[in-house]
Every structure is written in C-alpha cells, then in structure tokens.
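re: ur question from the group chat, yeah i did fold both. here u go
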Amino acid sequence: MTAETSVRDFSRSRAFEALARAGYVSRGLIYVLIGVLAFGLARNHTAEHAPNQQGAIAELLEKPLGKVLVTALAVGLLGYAVWRFVQAAVGRTPEQGSYSTGERVAAVASGLAYTLFLGMAVTTLIGAAKKTPPKSIAADVMTWPAGRLLIVLAGLVFIGVGAYQAKLAISRDFDEYSKTHEMPKNVARTFYIFGRVGHLA
C-alpha cells in the first residue's frame, strides 16, 4: 500500500469526517466571536480583546469552562488544518472531484493559516496555566533568526487566503462542499447570501 493510498483511505474514514466536522465548528466559532468583539468595539470604542483570532480565543477562555472550550477549539482547529492538508495531498474529494494545482496550493495555505490559529489556542492555554498573559505569536517570531522574513511570508499567506476567500464569494464556488441541490430554493438563496457576505468579510 502506497502512502498516497493510505492518505486517501484515511480521508474516507469516519474519524477523518469527525475531524473535518469539528474543524468547521471551530472555524465558525472563531469568526462568530470575532464578529461579537468587532460589534463591541464599534459600540463602546474600547474592548478588552482585539477583534481577531487571538482575541476571540482569549474571550472564549474567560467563559465558564473556558479551558475546556479552548481545548475543544484547539482539537477542532487541528482537525480543520489536517483536513486541508489531506485535501492538498490527495487532490480530490467526493464532493468536488479532482483539485486543480491552484486549489491544492490554496488548501496548503489554508492548512498553514489554521495551524497558526491552533498555535494561538495552545499558547493561550499555556499562558492561562502559568497565569501569564498570552504573548503575540508575531512578537515571539520576530525574536527568531530570520523572524522578520517569516512574518512577511506569513503575511503573504494570509493575503493569498484572503484573496481566495474573496474569489469564492464572487464566483459562489464556496458551495462546492455543500449539497445545495438538496436545499429548498429559499434556503439555498439564504445560504448564498450569507456565504457571499461571510467570505468577503
């Protein structure tokens, strides 16, 4: 059995499906929290946490059972990152069929981005355990050899991911993992409205 065959078989397993589902839940939770923080910032002009991924994770940590929630979030982010890397490695899904080279590159970039978010969740948990405020990952990386270059590369990855999300919104290709043909027309219409707004945001 080749490595590619093993990866393809894993991508069809129930465990892999569970990871992917957990990843989608975690991804959605992060962006819901970012939206809540952004609304709070707009309303009060001040906010305890910045409306970004790290702020969303810190906000979640302060809720009841915060450590449990952030741990579950980290597992979900791991699942999403693994799912995207496997998509890039296998190069096809049952829903979409074969991936183009550009789509495989985009899957790798997305996997890297969510690996970074996973790192934020883990460092936030470690900071909570040590009772120290979480540090900015970017600030830590800047102290590494070639840290500035790594930050620039990370910035380029995020620009690429952002451009890809905008492209999905404009083309409506974000429905490739959704069975829109099984939805009632009014549900599909609402799905596309929220999908376009969300991807552009």
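okk and heres the other one u asked abt
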Amino acid sequence: MSLDLAGYLELQRDRVDAFLKEYLRTLEAPSQLVEGMRYALLGPGKRIRPILASAAARCVGEKQDQVLPAACALEMIHAYSLVHDDLPAMDDDELRRGRPSTHVAFGEAQAVLIGDALLSEAFVLLGDLSRHPGIYAHELLEVSGRVARAAGAWGMVGGQWLDIVSQGAAPDIADVERIHLGKTARLIQVACYLGARLGGGAEAEVQSLSNYGLKLGLLFQLQDDVLAEVGSEQQTGKRQGRDRELHKATAVAALGLDSVRLRAKQLAHEALGCLSNLDEQRYDPLLKLVRYVLDRAD
C-alpha cells in the first residue's frame, strides 16, 4: 500500500509537537522565557528535520520512538536559528510563518535569549541518557558532536555568515552553493545521519542516508530561493521579494529561475539515487519527501 504522505507528515508533526510541549512543560526556567521558547518552537512549521530523522530510523529498523528525543533537539536548533535570523541586526523580518517574529512579539533582547536557550536546551536533550533508553552513551556523544558541527561555524552559522557578508555583491553560483551547504544542507544531512545511526543502521545504510540528506538539504534551500522570489506570503510566511530587497546572494539571482528549476530536478534525482541500496518497503517516506520538496515551488 502506498504511503499517504500528508497523513504521515501530520502524524509525525503531532508526535514531535507532543514531545516538545511536554519537555517545555517540565522545564525549570523563568515562565516568560519558557513562553517565548514555546512561541518560537511550536508555531506553524513543517518539522522537517525531526521527521527526517524519524524516517531515517524507520528505514533501518523499528526504533523511531527511541530516536524521537534526539530528533526533537534538531527542531530546537532550527527554531533558534530562525529567531536569530529574523532579528533587526540580521534579516530584520517582522513576520515568520505568517505571524509576528519572536523579537516583535517578545522584544529584541528577549529574542536573543530565547534563541540562546533553545540552542542550549537542544544539547541538554541530546545528552540526557535517561531520555534515550536503548542508545549507548558513546553513540550519543558521537551524534552530538556531529550535530554541533553541522550547527556551528562549519555548518549553519558559517552559512549564515556567508549569507550576510554576500549581500549586495554580484552573486556567484559557487558562493551561493557554499551558503546553501552551510545554511541548510548540513543540518538536514545530520538529521538523516542521526536517525540512521541511533536507529541502529549498518555503516553503508548510515552513509547512504547521510548522502540523501545532503542532496535533499541542497534541494530544500534551492526551492526556498525560488519561493522567496515567486511565492506568495501565504506560502512563505514572508513578504514576496524580500531576498531581492536585501540583495541576497541567491540561486535565482545567480542563475535565473529556469536554470534553478533544472538544477532542482537534478538534485532530486541524485537524492533518490542515494536510496537505491535500501529496503524499498521502508524508504517510502523519504522517497515521497523528495517529490514534496521539489513540488513546493511549482
């Protein structure tokens, strides 16, 4: 029976949100800080990173529940990055997913601290052995190191840095690809790696799923560039043409829409190729997620 992707995504989003709500409910911290973390973390969103981790675990076995806490840590990291990305000193966006950005709702200084708290709690969650029954400490240590690298100067932070310093310059596709790799692809790659590794996958399976995540991450950011140019505010949660206003180095600015769409199809093909040595009965969500991401900007 073919997987109903919409139903699968809804179910997985509910699982992620239920875990995160419970985590925040028991968090010992100032109540207004927790309220801000909840606002940033549990607003409208796809939960793609934890869902990918869960789908990768499904692909190599039956340990999706075991992987869920670590997968949810990735959503905390992603949410923190969006809070900081929207700040006046960065992209200065007043809207995020169709509602006021965190700094608009809570204040600029508070938003900095909300983002800091989400990042810190992500690693508290990753390192809490009591929340990961059946997973060895050395596995969590290895995965935590990879997550930190993907989120830091080599990955997301480095990509965001390049994004900022490239504003206003004539866009070069090689620079754009470096931005995409750091800003988005490496965290999506590590989501798939995390799910496969903590899900008990063999080394070949872990490598295949990690490669899949890298290709999917590049595709995801490529489509984000397209949506930023042609998508409606309802689709993106932001004003149309915002990247153009900021003179950002995007794939659309470097190549034009037609060439970007051809590149997107190539990346989708490469992502699917990474699944060829895996169990067909288990990788259906990953297969359909490629089409889902490819169709976002059509």
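fwiw on the second one: The mean pLDDT is 91. The radius of gyration is 18 Å. idk if thats what u expected
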